[in-house]
Here is the input.
Amino acid sequence: MDKKIITNILSMFSIQGVNYLIPLIMIPYLVRTLGMDGFGKYSIIIAIIQYLVIITDYGFNLSASKEIALNIGDKKKISEIFFSIILSKIIIATFLFLFLFLFLLSTNKVTTEYNLFISGIGIVIGTSFFPVWLFQGYEDMHWIAISNLIAKLSGLILVFLIVKNKEDLVFAIMIQSIVSMIASFIAFTKAFLGKYIHFVKPSLSMLIKQLRSGWSIFLSTLFVSMYTTSIPLILGYTSGAESAGIYNAADKLKYALQGIIGPVSQAIYPKTNRLMLSSIKQALRFVIIIAIPLVLFITIGSLIIYIYAEQIISIAFGEQNLLSTNVLRIIIWIPPIVAIANILGVQIILPLGKNKYFGLIYVSMGVIGLPLIYIASSLYSYIGVSIASLIIELLITFSFFIIVTKSIRVKL
Here is the structure.
């Protein structure tokens, strides 16, 4: 593995490490400060905001980074891609915000929940202008790591200084907005000052091209959110905010382990795409070399967390919140399954150009998963949701495996 890949993996680990380790410090503090009910409301509002983030991102993180990686050396083309995507995000976000404010006006009154929702809008704005896909395409991730670190550490400090009791819930959400905008400002500024891009007026044809390129990935991400991001919303509706808090507390610990997948996946994705163009065998060999230690490491991590789940929950959230233990012992087996699915889907199916199959699997699982999650939540609350989530991830991985084996057999 060349030095650039190693550097980018380390940079992505620092990004994801910040994204997941800082919440491991902040979330227990919020649970103890806001209470499980207050943290449940926090989780529900963030889940709603995350839907807007998913729509605004539109799948560009994968589609754009691939196109930039394939056009390295042509700064004009990269700049046109960049501004086409930024313009697309602005248009999408504008329609979302208009819909939001019209909805709020139609209610005749602004409740506390809507104030919480509005305080999180900065998360959408910050994410829209955070060009992780640009630096990923250049395989130069350390500036993203730096901007992310500065922003997230600032947010952690602000939470400890400002959030002191249940009444400070709105500030807890508002801080996440500030953090997101700080990170995007630093990264966006570096993109110009570092001469990764220069201003180019995007053409309508390029804008349409980028929207088409990201469409299948956007659909897959949107439908994935139907059985992931929507869980706090469904639990809050069927079982109350406290149940959403119980599940989400364990889910944050699961994501701390699952966060290992993202850095490796994002760092090797551009190279996997280039290798697929020249030699499928070479690309598969490269992916397998990465996959075996990754899956093994995550599986061992899941086993350790399963064994010590009660102690981990007690230390993180306090003995009064041990109900999250059984949830953690179920969903902690999701990370190794997701790691295999990522290798099959993102590192093989997408570089092979099978975007439609990739999107179709997630659309299908979204259609199946949403009612399954709802039924499981209605009947068995957070335990039912945990089991349903595990089953869905197994079905996705199995489907990807079938597509890969058939595609490779045809190509070779």
Summary: The first helix runs from residue 3 to 57. DSSP finds 17 helices and no strands in the chain.
